[in-house]
Specification:
Blueprint (H helix, E strand, L loop, with lengths): L1 E14 L2 E6 L2 E7 L6 H13 L11 H10 L3 H4 L4 H4 L2 E6 L21 H18 L5 E3 L7 E17 L2 E8 L3 E5 L2 E5 L7 E2 L7
Parallel strand pairs: 3-4, 4-5
Antiparallel strand pairs: 1-2, 1-3, 1-6, 6-7, 8-9, 9-10
Length: about 210
């Protein structure tokens, strides 16, 4: 299973010009189910989505402090301090099978890496229900499965996270603008444009 998380100030889903769901401060989750996924991967993903620390504490809440922090590589625990649970934010889940597209060959995306039909719907619905079950039902909203949706968002940061669950494990890559990154043993590192000041993703975020 794969999910893209966007830290947002607000987000919404519209279908056929009708507003389906909307949230204020929180997380917009685009989720895709792979053919080999089971409820085990779905449960791991739902828990990680809610526990990931994507917000700073009160002493580092501004965009300017975030940028300065990344460039100077200061105390990592300050900026990645709170999860959506901690801030009592909202969650908007949107099914998006195209996340699992392959573009290695040719000029057209290949979607064989995404589950289809009843399997995808069953596991996506289970994912949404699991997020609701682990949080507060009224704070978790949904899009419309397999519908042509217009998704609007105001990205907060911007901060985005890419989750990929595989064999029960979840790896993540966190990216801010610009989204350039390098891997290191203690976590993921992010190139901020200054080769001497690479931001290293704290290992605590993987716990």
């Amino acid at each position: 299973m794969k999910a893209i998380l966007q830290r947002v100030a607000s987000a919404s889903v519209t279908v056929d010009k009708q507003l389906i769901s909307s949230i204020d401060r929180g997380i917009l989750v685009f989720a895709a189910v792979a053919p080999d996924d089971t409820r085990r991967e779905v449960e791991a993903m739902a828990a990680k989505v809610l526990k990931l620390k994507m917000w700073p504490d009160e002493s580092g809440s501004t965009v300017r402090s975030l940028i300065n922090y990344i460039r100077s590589n200061l105390n990592s625990s300050i900026q990645w301090k709170q999860s959506v649970l901690d801030i009592k934010g909202e969650v908007l889940c949107v099914s998006q099978f195209t996340l699992l597209a392959s573009t290695k060959k040719g000029s057209k995306p290949d979607f064989h890496g995404a589950a289809g039909g009843e399997q995808a719907k069953e596991l996506y619905d289970y994912f949404f229900a699991k997020v609701q079950d682990l949080y507060e039902t009224e704070k978790v909203k949904n899009g419309v499965f397999q519908a042509m949706m217009e998704v609007g968002l105001v990205n907060d940061g911007p901060v985005g996270v890419d989750y990929h669950s595989e064999d029960g494990a979840v790896t993540l890559e966190i990216q801010t603008n610009p989204p350039k990154h390098q891997g290191k043993a203690a976590g993921k590192s992010m190139d901020t444009g200054d080769s001497d000041n690479a931001f290293v993703l704290p290992a605590s975020l993987l716990e």
